[in-house]
Amino acid sequence: MITIDGKEYDEQKFSPELQNYIAVRQEIQVSKTRHLIEIEKIDVLTKHYNEKIVKLIKKEVPESEKK
């Protein structure tokens, strides 16, 4: 059974074309979820390296050179 617009259907009764569209949509949704998780990882790593950059800049660049 599959729920579409609040109604349940037996997808086995759908045409092969409609079954294919549903399968493709499900694959797209899974792909979107994977990409969102990757973006979260990228955000965490970006924050981590930004903090390291700031820390090393404070250590390596004298105050007189900072604008």
Protein architecture, described:
Strands 1-2 form a two-stranded antiparallel sheet. A hairpin with a 2-residue loop joins strand 1 and strand 2. The relative contact order is 0.06. It is rod-shaped. It has one helix and two strands. It is 67% helix and 9% strand. With 67 residues, it is mainly alpha-helical.
Name the shape in a single word: rod-shaped
Largest sheet, in brief, is:
2 strands, antiparallel
SS-based structural class?
mainly alpha
Distance from first to last alpha carbon: 63 Å
Oligomer description:
single chain
Uncertain runs are: none
**Total DSSP helices:** 1
Radius of gyration (CA) equals: 24 Å
- Approximate helicity band: 55-70%
Written as H for each helix and E for each strand, in order along the chain, the element string is EEH
Mean pLDDT, all residues: 94
The tally of beta strands, per DSSP, is 2
Strand order of the largest sheet: 1-2
Q: How much β-strand is present in the residues?
A: 5-15%
Q: Which helices and strands, and how do they pair?
A:
Layout (H helix, E strand, L loop, with lengths): L1 E3 L2 E3 L6 H45 L7
Antiparallel strand pairs: 1-2
